[in-house]
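Before drawing any conclusions, I looked closely at one protein's amino acid sequence and its backbone structure tokens, quoted below without any editing.
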Amino acid sequence: MDSIPAGFEPGHAEVPLPGAPPMPFEDVYRRSRDVVRAIETVIDGKREAVETALTVLLAEGHLLIEDVPGVGKTMLARSLARAIDGSVSRIQFTPDLLPADITGVSIYNQSQHEFEFKPGPIFANVIIGDEINRASPKTQSALLESMEERQVTVDGRTYELATPFVVVATQNPIEMEGTYALPEAQRDRFMARISMGYPDPSAELGMIRSRETSSPLDALTPVVTTRELAAMIHTVRNVFVSPPVEQYVIALIGATRRDPDLRLGASPRATLQLIRAAKARAALDGREFVLPDDINALLVPVLGHRLIAAGRSAATAGGSNLTIAEALARIAAQTPVPLGSAGRS
């Protein structure tokens, strides 16, 4: 069974938050399983990718799905969006896309003799950014403010975005023709990066049979409302993180900054997002407290795309995922796990 960290008290005081009241932990677990099952009617055999996507959603982060064309990146993003009864926008990133095509533009209204703001597709609960690295760095940078501050500034005026708000972006590997490497600041704003990988033979055979006459995405209906999602997010914020686990995260992050195989370590934003993601993972596992197991399971998805391997150029920022994963595995193995919160006993 799970060992309860010192200082944890079941039913500890919840942080008052605006909007929907927090949802009981058991309900968060039940509703999250409903979302996973719904997405798996479309994405078969990719439980880890589906659960990581939901983890990012509940942790109020943004998700980057990177893999070769045709393995289901966009389908996962669309399935996650379809499972939520909220507003959805899809942005197809192309080389000629402009920042105003994302954020919106002010247009002069001749009848009222004033400028009128026409909001862009960024004003939605779920933003599907398809092939984000096919747009120029200037256009990619249009997402920086919205992803970090959940607002858009156009012509000196600031507009708040919808709540909840999540960007689910797909990209092809940077070796693919016609792609741009995401700037470090852009990558750092994504809470996690995942890869789909090829399906196993049984899943691929099931895909052939289930999609001969129709698409399972058409049959996917929302399983949670935006109000329920907001309540689930509020509950995730209140997941308990013990001081030893906090110190464990600090030790891991610090090690990435000193590792000789890494030219760029994890940022303070990465520290915060690793904690938030670990809270969501604990809630998805039916727990009200974070374990070191949660931290270790999320090291590569949350930190891998932020780090740069030593000796690599800025054009290949992020390095080989295998190399980064090996460095993170070594760091985790060399960092002492806090006693009393050692995981499972």
Q: What stands out?
A: The two ends are 6 Å apart (CA to CA). The chain is about 40% helix and 15% strand. Residues 268-284 form the longest helix (17 residues).
